[in-house]
Fold this sequence. Notes:
The protein is an alpha+beta fold and about 325 residues long.
Amino acid sequence: MRTDLDHLPADRRRELGDFVLRTILTAFEDAHASSVTGWKKKGRIHKIVLYGSFARGGWVYEPHTKKAYSSDYDLLVMVNRKQVVDNIAFWSALEDRFLKACAAGRIKSLPSMIVHTRQEVHSALSRGRYFFMDIVKDGILLYDADDVEFPKPKPKTPSDKVALAEEYFGEWYPSAGEFYDDFSRNLELSRTHKAAFELHQCVEHLYNAVLLTLTFYAPRNHNIKALRGMADKLDRRLAYVWPSDFHWQRAAFNILRDAYVKARYARPGYKITVEQLRWLGEITQNLSEAVRIVCQEHIAALKAEAMHSVDAIPVSVRNIDRAVEEESE
């Protein structure tokens, strides 16, 4: 795996090395080394890998355009324990720290972290998960504390890809529709908290549908803003679904993002109006249609690939072809 950042401008190299990487490692050390909790004290970061557009090249930085789209610093953080992965309070606080740094102009792009154990990453590679295979192929190793190499990926056959993509789409997309039906019924009854939670689940399932169908991977994350960021990178049609020209539009989405916990458990201070829910519901319908089109196009492309692949040819025909080749030698 590459370790250099020579393809990046000097200011980007400084951001990643002097601020982003140092912030992650320092915050982790401060939170875990001094802890009296056993698993926290033994918690370790094995590797940090930059992947995505900043690793491959071709990142986007257009903060002053109408859509104000900018690529994130996509980072895979590999740790040694499942408890470290599930320490949501720590990772959320770190994300908030980066958000403030980005808003203050300290860094140009926002770090977007996914956290997994080494076992999870190695298992995903052995099962041919596209997402992690691409990270290993195109990623740049920013930090390495264990010297354990990634295992050789085992790619899926084209027919395997079709079957798995159809399975994921068939599971997650209809499920999103069921949550939307529940949202509509609760909205009619002006049960705003319940409606907000059901709509949040609809959006979460739509993003899981497209992530799993296209990459065979979705993080264990209920943060629809993080899921949206990952999905937007897969197809720009998804990036343009949510209007964000005005503050009220961005605020409404953020209120929906918070619904998984605050609306679900009726936290004091959580408020969402019927008007906001109606608008969010309309945009969610647009998202649903975009997800359907993107997923079905991808599945069709996988089927076309499978039809022309070797594994689509019956074994008997392959054996005949092999015999003919041997006779001609």
